[in-house]
Amino acid sequence: MTDLYRSGPLRGSVTVPGDKSITHRAVILGSLSEGVTEIIGYLPGADCLSTADCFRRMGVEIETAGEIMLVTGRGLRGLRPDPRFMENGLLSLDTGNSGTTTRIISGVLAAQPFSCVLSGDESLNSRPMRRVMQPLRLMGAGITSILDNDCAPLRIEGRPLHGIDYRSPVASAQVKSAILMAGLYADGRTSVTEPSLSRDHTERMLQAFGASVDTVDTSDGVKISTGPCDRLYGQSVRIPGDISSAAFLIAAASITPGSEILIRNVGINPTRAGILQAAGAMGADIRILGDGQNAPEPRADLLVRSAPLHGTVIEGRMIPTLIDELPVIAVMAACAEGTTVIRDAAELRVKESDRIAVITENLRTMGVDVTPAPDGMVIEGLGGAPLRGGQIHTHGDHRIAMSFAVASLAADSPVKLDDESCVAVSWPSFFRGLRSLLT
Ligand code: S3P
């Protein structure tokens, strides 16, 4: 991928792959439902396939045909370990690179009548799991870190659970979702209060599948609660395009003069769409076409034209709405005029890589002045002057690879990524998609 520098402009219309977060949840809830769930436009990325593989190992039949995934649910209490994946009496589940799979299904596994070990790749096995272990233990779960380092591999012994009223220190949809999933099986009500609302796909989808979920603002933050559930019902779920993938094209078109692209059918759930506000605050020219009123997940077409960008401040409640987009926002900031400050984003340090360190390292390679902080960074934009080419270290992180592929469009010499294959986690055909727009 050394050929993208000085290419463009971007022109034409595209769709991006299905939303990763929503696909995970559709596979999980479909597996736990009565009847068949049809997932239209599912993301065939490695992370979502890890979720499907875990449920296959628990006896769920999952088939794919074209853009449709069909999940034949086994009901909330019908999961059974496939004997082929039993080791020493424990079901072995491989969650690959996927933090979402690991954390959310921990909440399901904690309540099953069998025990398992959850493990993933090197990056996954170094990410913090205490944030789910602690609340699940409070619910009565038998969940331990096998190496006693609060990371996967996790050993989970299914047990009867009871409801809790939990205050989460982080605004994390994975933590919230793990607790709500466990809450479906618990005695009594379960609630989780997060400091600010993280993506609410689980709440929306649980309701669509027949569970009751309440969300209320409190003086401590946003409180989401659910109660024990008898059954969920299979549904037809249409997955919108992933705004986290669209973000790479929004950035690419914004920084490449003369660009005009239409990205069709993008999910614009307000708990996910912070990139639209942040890019707008930087001067990006993005128009939302359509009313975005589709239930349960709003979607719209996005018309993006190149525009001169300027620095901004990204902080506070906005952070959870664009946490996965911060690497590519940092690239936009590098191309902008003036200074961009990102703060309150310490979570970036525990994503697929330490994204604060990795963005800093790679933007510096490209000639940008970046000052990292424990919870963010300060980026001095080059104001439209070209970035420098060079060798990019992706650390196997899909969003770093795609962000720096976008950065290469603004470079004056070749940019080489040490690993392009990692994009398969969330957008296997990313390079083809990007190239299809380059004129
Ligand atoms: C996700 C939640 C976010 C996000 C991740 C997907 C989800 O993580 O970064 O890519 O689908 O629930 P946290 O819950 O750790 O914030």
Category from helices, strands and their pairing: alpha/beta
User: Major sheet: order of its strands?
Assistant: 6-7-8-10-9
CATH class placement of the largest domain: Alpha Beta
CATH architecture of the largest domain: Alpha-beta prism
What is the helical fraction, as a range of percent? 25-40%
| Anisotropy-based shape | globular
Small-molecule components bound: shikimate-3-phosphate
Chain oligomer state: single chain
> Main beta sheet: strand number and arrangement?
5 strands, mixed
Give unreliable regions as ranges. none
Computed CA radius of gyration, to the nearest angstrom:
21 Å
Q: Helical stretch count? A: 13
Number of domains: 2
Number of strands: 25
Mean pLDDT: 97
CATH homology group of the largest domain: Enolpyruvate transferase domain
CATH topology of the largest domain: UDP-n-acetylglucosamine1-carboxyvinyl-transferase, Chain
What portion of residues belong to β-strands? Answer: 25-35%
Termini separation comes to 16 Å
What would you say this structure looks like, in words?
The protein starts with 10 loop residues before the first strand and ends with a helix. With 439 residues, the protein is an alpha/beta fold. The protein has 13 helices and 25 strands. Bound molecules: shikimate-3-phosphate.
